[in-house]
Amino acid sequence: TGILAxxxxxxxxxxxxxxxxxxxxxxxxxxxxxxxxxxxxxxxxDGEISWTIPFGLSNSSQYQIxxxxxxxxxxxxxxxxxxxxxxxxxxxxxxxxxxxxxxxGISSVMILILIRKKLRKK
Length: 122
Fold this sequence. Notes:
This protein is of the alpha+beta class. Helix content is 20%, strand content 40%. The protein contains 1 helix and 8 strands. Strands 1, 3, 4, 6, 7 and 8 form a 6-stranded mixed beta sheet that branches. Strands 2-5 form a two-stranded antiparallel ribbon.
C-alpha cells in the first residue's frame, strides 16, 4: 500500500478507535518524532475530527498524529507515517482554475468565429 498523502489547505478526517472509558483526547501533529503542533488540546473521544491542514507546513512523509487520553496521558497512540505536501499548482498570485477559464474563453471565441464564417457563406 502507498503512504497516505494530504495537501495543505484541504480538510481531512482524522479517525480513531478507543477502548475503555476514554472521555476526551488531545491530538497532536509530529514531524520526524518531534512535536510540530497541537491540533486540539481536548476533544470528545468520539472517533473523528476534521482538520484543515494549514499552509506553511514542511513537505514531508514523516508526519504522525498522536492521540492521548487526557485523563490518563500514559494512554496514547501514534498513527502510521503520512505525507503532507504543498500544491505546486498555485505559485505567486495565480488564480485557481485560471488555465481552464482561459481555455474555455479561447474555445468560445473560436466557436463564434466559425459560426460567423458559416453565416457569411450563406
